[in-house]
Amino acid sequence: MQTIQDMMDTFIDKAELVSAKVSRVKTLEEAFAYTVALCDGKEMCPLLVSGCELNLSEPSMQLCREKTGKIVAAPGLDTEGTASLRALCEGKGLELIDHGLRRHLGGLDIGFTVCDLGIAETGTLVLDSSSEEVRLATMVCETHVAVLPQSKLRATSFDAEPELLEFMASTPNYLSFITGASRTADIERVLALGVHGPLELHILLWEDK
Amino acid sequence: MQDATTLKEYRDQCQEAIDDEFLRKAMDSFAKAYRTNRVKAFAGMNEKALIAEIAGAKDAAIVRLPELYEEFRAKAEQAGVHVHLAKTAAEANEIICQIAKDNGCQKIVKSKSMTAEETLLNHRLEADGLEVTETDLGEWIIQLRHEGPSHMVMPAIHLSRYQVADLFTDVTKKEQDSDIEKLVKVARRELRAKYIEADMGISGANFAVVETGAIGLVTNEGNARLVTTLPRVHVALCGVDKLTPTLHDALRIIKALPRNATGQAITSYVTWITGANACATGPQGKKEYHIVFLDNGRLAMAQDPDFRQILRCVRCGACANVCPVYRMVGGHRMGHIYIGAIGLLLTYFFHGRDKAKNLVQNCINCGACKEACVAGIDLPRLIKKVHARIQDEEGHALPSVLLGKVMSNRKLFHTLLKTAKWGQKPIKDGSTGYLRHLPMIFGKGQDFRALPGVADKAFRDEWPEIRPQVDNPRYRVALFSGCVQDFVYPEQMKAGVRVMDGHGVAMEYPMGQSCCGLPLVMMGESGPARDVAEQNVKAMDPSKFDYIITLCASCASHLKHTYPRMLGDDPELAEKARVFSEKVIDFSSFVYDVLGVGKDDFKEEGGQGKTAYHSPCHLCRGLGVTEAPRELLRQSGLNYAPSAEEDVCCGFGGTFSMKFPAESRELLHKKLDNVKASGAGELVSDCPGCVMQLRGGAEMRKDGLRVRHIAEALAERKK
């Protein structure tokens, strides 16, 4: 049986191999602060989302123009968490949304989620995405910030199997394994991140115990 | 998409591909990178055990597909899914068009599905006036070019960034840079707009998990998540072979599929969809969700005790990645819709004999695909079997029939070979032993290598004079020469005998032996192939010998693996064939592992220059022998110099090189270039066929490279 520490080491190692940025946080508050600082940072969250600076077709240019501010999407947080994150966002002039994401398909800066399980052997996050808002937050955003409670880390996918089955048993269910950012190598086998989904994945390991 | 109607037309298309410099370069760098990445990806894992487990679980599911389908349907329907079963490709397309009509859909986004390629779904949807956009980057690119995929995982691998930039310029009506990062971002934004407009999303499915009623989707780009989320209707098209009883089965496959496909431990996204999920724009806030299962011959295939293993395929594409022929000609020549070794098979079963009859001949039988297959499918053997089946259905080609007739009659065959000795007199160069020009029967394009004439005296005729007398032998062995060493290169056999001499080995050369039969299998002549197998097993009683030794890797692998299968249904011969095959051993393994020949047996002073090694396909993959020959080179003072891609096929492949000389030539030249780069002045191998190819090629290129059988090099170094 692997110790928690072994699992953490493996998880961090594997997640970083696929270019995820892994940090540790002690509280959820700390994760909120990380997210807001990330979006408020100099290079992050430019008004124009990636690709919009390029020569696009007219309809696509139009879609780019729909985004008019810096947006953090955090559906799926409880009331208290939402309020806490909203206060931080507003302090920095960022908009926090937790529903109605279909109105923001032109682009979101950060999608923030708390994950349900982690799989150490591959550096994988498991996220119950049955809520459409959660699916959109994690796909339409430029950067996905995912909090993984340490207690939810499992060594292998087989170890996570009973819990995965539990999720799937409460139908309907939409369960996602996420490992690194969205990627492609379809042009000349050159790796490029962010082909459809996030360009960056930040994982915050939460020492919840 | 390969659809040549004649073998000649097909060969010409392959030649065009070989002449495409970009394609060759792309394929070469991919082939090399893939090998390294795959090894890294499986490091520290018990790969063989994992493959066996996947194969076992798949086999157990394949025999109960109809019942799994019913269970899945019940489970999925409970969760609000509409489940359909389509008997044919046309029926599947029809069902999907009807769903679009019933729901008033106009615009469709698709994530990648090879099954939808199989049914040519887009054609059908577009014929109904629907707008279809592929969202996987590679699929989108080939859709815009009106092409089929050239690889199952990387469908646009045949295209350059410049071609993509031109294409995107057309699409956006704005000038595009050829920078790949930028092109990917352009696709990101252009496709984002498509997702938003779409009212129907079509995906494939890598798994349909019976215990949960879920489908599983394995993707890197994440497009499948958007395709299954944004539009109000979702249709998943899924081969019935994707039904798997448990989530555990699927998780197990996920441990292997991405590793084997792209060298990734897992893809960026794996998505599990169970039931009709929330969808803001759907009826009552729910997704209109359909799963269309496609039979298209799969359920019938599941009844065939041998071919049903094809249904184990997880569509990783590795059989193309490692195929030397694919590397040469690319996916548009190495498949109709499905590509690579599995593509040759699936083309026959899904798209018919006409589309498959030329394709199935383009397999060099090197076994690289079988070794890489994560589901343990015996691809090369099944390809030969399909070839034979097509010949049975369509009538055998005359040369193939003649070969069969001649070879299954040993006396006639050997008489012809001996007669050839006289017939070739005017064209055989007395000093070199090569034929000065090739007789007509060799056909066009064979002049890339010099070919040897038949030897003046066959090994069987020399045997009585050279047979060593051994008192109190340690081992009693039978020598199996195969035709090439018997009639063309008897000196290789003699060298082998000399290496074994003095080690207490009582050798016999049973005169009733004939060709091993592999060339007949390669030609799709399974009847005569069985006849010669029977002759050989009867010619040497395995109970009298400790080992049956052959210096030909191809013979060895054929005798060992194919004989028990070919003769297994004959109650008189089955047991004998089994014992026979158990006793078969290759020369290097016998000399090194059994006799323990080592340093002390060879001259003390080191040899001159360096020696490169070509690892024959049928030795390294066919028999799993890799160390014995290399150790012998090291211990004998031959100064073994490793070279790149030692275990990639030399391009001979027996009759393959006659049928596809251009491909054979390219493989040969690649091999000789690698040897040259190693700085070796000599090249040795364990197979007379490889020696014939490599020596003849080096001769034509004037490489100044000495090519010999390993036995000859070792005999020379013997004390």
The fraction of residues assigned to DSSP E strands of chain A is: 25-35%
Low-confidence stretches of chain B: none
What share of residues are in beta strands of chain B?
5-15%
The overall pLDDT average of chain B reads 95
Question: What's this, in brief?
Answer:
The complex is a heterodimer of chains A (209) and B (719). Chain A is an alpha/beta fold.
Q: Could you walk me through the main structural features you see in this protein, from its secondary elements to its overall organization?
A:
The complex is a heterodimer of chains A (209) and B (719). In chain A, α2 runs parallel beside α4. By secondary structure, chain A is α/β, with parallel strands linked by helices. Helix content of chain A is 33%, strand content 26%. Chain A is globular. In chain A, β10 and β11 form a beta hairpin. Chain A has a single domain, classed as NagB/RpiA/CoA transferase-like (Rossmann fold). Chain B has four domains: 113 residues, no CATH class; 254 residues, NagB/RpiA/CoA transferase-like (Rossmann fold, 3-Layer(aba) Sandwich); 137 residues, Rossmann fold (3-Layer(aba) Sandwich); 119 residues, 3-Layer(aba) Sandwich (Rossmann fold). Chain B is 50% helix and 11% strand. Chain B is elongated. Chain B has a six-stranded parallel beta sheet with strand order 1-10-7-4-2-3, with helices on both faces. A four-stranded mixed beta sheet of chain B has the order 8-5-6-9, with helices on both faces. Chain B has a four-stranded parallel beta sheet with strand order 12-11-13-14. Chains A and B meet through α3, α5, α6, β9 and β10 of A and α2, α8, α9, α10 and α11 of B.
